[in-house]
Amino acid sequence: MSLTFIIVLVIVGLLFFILEVLVIPGTSVAGVIGFVAIAVAVWQAWVQYGYETGLTVLGASLVGSIVCLWLSLRTNTWKRVSLKESIESKVNLIDGSIVYPGARGKSVSRLAPTGKVRFGSEDFEVQSQEGFVDQGQEVEVVKIEGNKITIKPL
């Protein structure tokens, strides 16, 4: 194996390492391929060219990995791929004149134990106090805590 091929293996390993860190986080195929490529390059340098070249390739690989990681994290890569918007929506915006303890409605979907119930002309996400409720069954609101509506079947 030529020294050029060993250098190419180290560079390919570093590219896969950067791909693992920036694009595909976690222990995945890209990280394993990068590690194997660098390990094969160091091993082949050691076997083909001896102790000094093997240590040189190992040291260059370690320094290259650290520099690539530092440059990748130093740039604004994370800011470009991160979510900048916040979600302010809620599951239920409860109108006290429609939904209140004691209000009656009809289940639109099967509650197992959560599902949708229609109160008046609006559908709300609810939770059954007593387990499963079939679709089309009459229900009554037991309590409201924040945006959580708890019902019981009639």
Keywords, separated by commas or semicolons:
alpha+beta, five-stranded mixed barrel, OB fold (Dihydrolipoamide Acetyltransferase, E2P), single chain, rod-shaped, 154 residues, 2 domains, 20% strand
Overall description:
The protein has 154 residues and is of the alpha+beta class. It has 2 domains: 3-81; 104-153, OB fold (Dihydrolipoamide Acetyltransferase, E2P). The chain contains 4 helices and 5 strands; from the N terminus they run ααααβββββ. The chain has helices at residues 3-22, 29-49, 51-74, 77-81; strands at residues 104-107, 114-119, 122-128, 138-145, 148-153. The protein has a 5-stranded mixed β-barrel with strand order 1-2-3-5-4. Helix 1 runs antiparallel to helix 2, helix 1 runs parallel beside helix 3 (51-74) and helix 2 (29-49) runs antiparallel to helix 3 (51-74).
- Overall 3D geometry? rod-shaped
Spatial separation of the terminal alpha carbons: 79 Å
Number of helices: 4
Q: What percent of residues are in strands?
A: 15-25%
Oligomer: single chain
Are there runs of 5+ residues with pLDDT below 50, and where?
Answer: none
The portion of residues assigned to helices is: 40-55%
Helix-strand pattern, N to C?
HHHHEEEEE
Main beta-sheet strand count, sense and barrel state: 5 strands, mixed, barrel
Helix and strand content put the structural class at: alpha+beta
How many extended strands?
5
Radius of gyration: 30 Å
Give the gist of this structure.
The protein is α+β, with helices and mostly antiparallel strands and 154 residues long. Helices cover 45% and strands 20% of the residues. The chain is built from 4 helices and 5 strands.
